[in-house]
Amino acid sequence: MPVPHGTRNPGATRVTLLTEGTYPHSHGGVSVWCDQLVQGMPDLDFDVIAVTGTGREPLVWELPAHVSRVLSVPMWGDPPQGDPPRGRARSRLATAYEQFLTALLDPRAEPGFAPALYTMARAAADGALSPFLRSDRAITLLTTVWNRPGLAVRESGPTLHDALTATSLLEHALRPLAAPPPETGVAHAVSGGVAVLPGLAALDRHGVPLLLTEHGVYLRERYLGYRTAPYRWPVKAVVLGFFRLLAEETYRRAALITPGNRYNRLWEEQGGADPESIRTVYNGVDPAAFPPAGPEPQTLTLSWAGRVDPIKDLETLIRAFALVRARLPEARLRLFGGTPKGGEGYRERCEALAAELGHADAVTFEGRVDDIKDAYAAGNVVMLSSISEGFPFTLIEAMSCGRATVSTDVGGVREAVGDTGLVVPPRDPAAMAAAALELLGDPARRAAMGEAARLRVIEQFTLRQTIDTFRSIYLELPGLVRAPADAPVPPVPPGELTAVGTVAG
């Protein structure tokens, strides 16, 4: 449901933020970043198209008057309203969908992905795509495609259950295509993946320029997540094929890509982005809002801040802490941050691990803290154990507070820290413990690193620099629109529409 928030400013540039699972319905680093942009540019008008879980998530950010509208697009709530296509419209959509599936599974057919996607987007705008994908016809098309001779997925013996699962996952992932896309201004996707779909539709239909900011690498995180997902290989082949080709189409079509670090740039260039369309823009904080944290705690303490989520790899941190405590029995580990809905099982697993290792008395889950600065002040050393990051706010906030840090070498972490903290390989408890012990045992070095870290933030990573850069981008972007996609769907070779005309749907 659209949520009105004030009135738009006449003549102001309109920016539509495209989000997934973050602003304005959730806390976290990306949400903080979105709020910084919105609050920092009261002279511009903002809308938000937010991909959510059920569509019933409350707003958790106070939105200023220049945010005119928030449209929630639920991926797992009720499906979009509409009726199944009929006649020629059904045949046209079936042809496009078969071409779409073929592109996901056959490398030779990948050029057909984009035109098929835009045909499906127009069907979604008419309310026809979701009903079609929930029909028997869509299931039969998939079973026909992935059983063709010569396709690698055929060798894994896909079943009808696999087809039902894969088709359902695609139907949910494509739901954002049914959201009314922006018709003017700039569409700013603050992550890759399904949040970009309304932006691609806006570019194809209305010529609205697309700006992409990746904090983490969405495609990499999907690869990590699906590695342990409870699906058979045929399902993973379809879904990961979709995310890969969607990322490549986004990289090609975006007028500008603004990764939060140079590491992301490598993925984007490999995915087909024009290097000249990429401009690194670091996250920033207000050093006045994160002043020096003051005296360290008397009991040697490691602190961590973030959301309790597998991608933060708290299990490695807890294992590292067990090694620290073997040397420093008085040490403590304090974990600050909320547990997202659905993540309770992961937190319980982490608590069980601490108990299993014999350190439940020294590992505390503090929950959300009213003032995040308290989380950084609570530690002699601030830890970051993630297996994937962009340019993490918790890290530069802790640096601004003058705390020494130990972080995993992922995303833009090394760019952020420089030589003002210790960086260790991810998923390596021994290396993390050794770094923590090194700093816990040297108060003078901790203090020197903390002072250098705050100076690094002031010189390179301030919020004012970030906001000024994006304001300039918003104003210049309408002149950087990429060429429109080819609208027509290329014909499917004879013999590849088997059963299309005979399947009930």
UniProtKB/TrEMBL annotation:
InterPro entries: DUF3492 (IPR022622), PelF-like (IPR047691). Pfam families: DUF3492 (PF11997), Glyco_trans_1_4 (PF13692). It comes from the Bacteria. SUPFAM superfamilies: UDP-Glycosyltransferase/glycogen phosphorylase. Residues 14-276 form the DUF3492 domain. NCBIfam families: PelF. This is D-inositol 3-phosphate glycosyltransferase.
